[in-house]
Amino acid sequence: MSNPSLLILPGDGIGPEVMAEVTKIIDWYGAKGGLKFDVSEDLVGGSAYDKYGVPLTDETMAKAQEVDAVLLGAVGGPKYDTLDFSLKPERGLLRLRKEMDLFANLRPAQCFDALADFSSLKIDVVAGLDLMIVRELTAGLYFGEPRGIFEEGNERVGINTQRYTESEIDRVARSAFELARKRGNKVTSVEKANVMESGVLWREVVQKVHDEDYPDVELNHMYADNCAMQLVRAPKQFDVIVTDNMFGDILSDCAAMLTGSLGMLPSASLGAPMANGRPKAMYEPVHGSAPDIAGQGKANPIATILSFAMALRYSFDQGAEADRVEAAVETVLASGLRTADLLGEEGVQPVSTSEMGDAIVAAL
Amino acid sequence: MSNPSLLILPGDGIGPEVMAEVTKIIDWYGAKGGLKFDVSEDLVGGSAYDKYGVPLTDETMAKAQEVDAVLLGAVGGPKYDTLDFSLKPERGLLRLRKEMDLFANLRPAQCFDALADFSSLKIDVVAGLDLMIVRELTAGLYFGEPRGIFEEGNERVGINTQRYTESEIDRVARSAFELARKRGNKVTSVEKANVMESGVLWREVVQKVHDEDYPDVELNHMYADNCAMQLVRAPKQFDVIVTDNMFGDILSDCAAMLTGSLGMLPSASLGAPMANGRPKAMYEPVHGSAPDIAGQGKANPIATILSFAMALRYSFDQGAEADRVEAAVETVLASGLRTADLLGEEGVQPVSTSEMGDAIVAAL
Ligand SMILES: CC(C)[C@H](C(=O)O)[C@@H](O)C(=O)O
Ligand SMILES: CC(C)[C@H](C(=O)O)[C@@H](O)C(=O)O
């Protein structure tokens, strides 16, 4: 049997630096951990545009469809701000999500004990926070048609379309309920059913999936504006939040910032099972490409390393190994090592991106 | 010359209780403050549905079009959850906004010194916070067509449309720049131009309005997800935020909760000038109808009272009187009076909704 395959797409900005540290961990597994991967690497985003004139080539797209999991760094940067909409770095990322049909985007917001003081929130509000946002990732405003800028009378109009079918809602709701059963057994479904018909359908389908197949899971419904408030007021009331693509984009960033340490947060984007039983999958940090600090060895590689841990858990059924990587990260943090984003406490030792990666490998 | 006219729409839940306290202040102005208003009162939301079978009658709508300003309490409640979409309490509110063409919704998020400790954020992050969100209120996802739930193949699809014309963006951008000139002279325009074409047009038009007519105001552009993060991380970086209807709904609630005292936050919704030079206007608290505490004398009337202060400022050009009402509120807070939502500190005196209103009238 051949090794499981990984496609690494470091992308732009700090993407390549943080991904280099993941490569060390993959190498460690190959050499000592008894888990070998077939790894290939390619371009996405601005770096693909620079070389090929498009943010994702058809060849790279085809490769992504074939591998067992994609690991992505980050895309985007001011250099590409003036590019036409269809050529922007983000289009590469969105094409991967759409064509791989990665409908369930799992975004944990977890507050690490050693780092709780970095939050702008009071410690007791966030200490021990551990919530999971399941964001629908392949439909809604991001992809609905019609879309574009059109002439109308003597002016232009910008149009995008929010669009959800019953089956699109159904499948992501199931992902959320399945996850909740392995966690706190509670799902909060978020929409604006008081204002949007797509929200009315969302609420109805989530309720139906619940009643038919997950009656044991606690379900409640919340409007998106109230959810933003509740995240700020008392985030520990949540276990799993399931919501659409656009609300999920905003609420997951809000939730991520509650923890105060964005450089620590991974994500997984999962689709339907492939022939080998593994889900289509892409893993990436929640943070962006941070062009302002790119190439300076300041970036925190932990979010990307924890994304690889999620790959071990969700793509390769290696829960124990995922735990091992997560434990190594905690050990290193407990020992006081910090990248530049997490300085400021007493008694911590500033390290570079690559020193952090080395320390985590050593802790494995 | 006749007195300026006010239409009071108390609405549902705690709406009537908090509005009763505003009435005391209006009466005080009539008796002692030398400012007489012609006041009429009517129903909106669930209370209108209960009596007339619709959340806003055509007669009430016509009255709202004629008066100088509308004061609204709040709408909604679980009792109406199962009503058809077109009959929900919210439709009454949305009809007022749309038919009065109240395109600029001003939502200040201000942290009161006496109450900074109610925030879930660290005091130094929010103390002195004073930002203003200008939310577009008559277009976008809230009103775009097509909308609804449709049959498609063998399933249903929920559709809403994000839609902005150049002139809709232009006019709300002007409101934001005008306001910024009277405040910190800085505008942050928020969209998702990296994902949505409507955001591309938004950004372009805001920039053009800036360059042509407000080059003296500092302008920057931010993605909505990043804005949610930045609000949590460092909200004092903002002065005026201008954004669309849906992003504004979520971000303004997030910003409101940063202050920790939702019961304190007013809003103004303004349209074009009428024949008498006053803008079409509606004033309402940011908080909702809080059905769980309705009728118990627990609600905080200050948000609604401060909404009336905004009416004095924006509709009646009585800036000094608005300052007077705001000062009265601060005096009462400084003296230690608190409604039930703000208990918990040492040395405060719990008071009912109506005692709070009386104290503010006394402080005038
Ligand atoms: C880069 C951008 C297209 C993307 C999104 O909006 O989905 C990002 O913000 C995210 O949340 O992954
Ligand atoms: C009640 C509801 C329709 C309304 C909205 O979504 O605009 C409310 O949340 C608000 O922000 O004023």
Automatic annotation (TrEMBL), chains A, B:
Binding site for substrate: 97, 107, 135, 225
Pfam families: Iso_dh
Alphabetical keyword list: Amino-acid biosynthesis, Branched-chain amino acid biosynthesis, Cytoplasm, Leucine biosynthesis, Magnesium, Manganese, Metal-binding, NAD, Oxidoreductase
EC number: 1.1.1.85
Transmembrane intervals: none
Catalysis: reaction(s): (2R,3S)-3-isopropylmalate + NAD(+) = 4-methyl-2-oxopentanoate + CO2 + NADH
Domain of life: Bacteria
Keyword Metal-binding: yes
Gene Ontology terms, MF aspect: 3-isopropylmalate dehydrogenase activity; magnesium ion binding; NAD binding
Keyword check for Magnesium: yes
Binding-site residues, Mg(2+): 225, 249, 253
Known cofactor(s): Mn(2+); Mg(2+)
Binding site for NAD(+): 77-90, 288-300
Site feature Important for catalysis, where: 142, 192
Pathway: Amino-acid biosynthesis; L-leucine biosynthesis; L-leucine from 3-methyl-2-oxobutanoate: step 3/4
GO biological process: L-leucine biosynthetic process
Localisation: Cytoplasm
Cofactor binding note from Swiss-Prot or TrEMBL: Binds 1 Mg(2+) or Mn(2+) ion per subunit.
Coiled coil spans: none
Cellular component aspect of the GO annotation: cytosol
Domain Isopropylmalate dehydrogenase-like intervals: 5-360
Gene3D superfamilies from the UniProt entry: Isopropylmalate Dehydrogenase
General function of this protein: Catalyzes the oxidation of 3-carboxy-2-hydroxy-4-methylpentanoate (3-isopropylmalate) to 3-carboxy-4-methyl-2-oxopentanoate. The product decarboxylates to 4-methyl-2 oxopentanoate.
Family classification: Belongs to the isocitrate and isopropylmalate dehydrogenases family. LeuB type 1 subfamily.
Subunit structure: Homodimer.
Descriptive protein name: 3-isopropylmalate dehydrogenase
Organism: Antarcticimicrobium sediminis
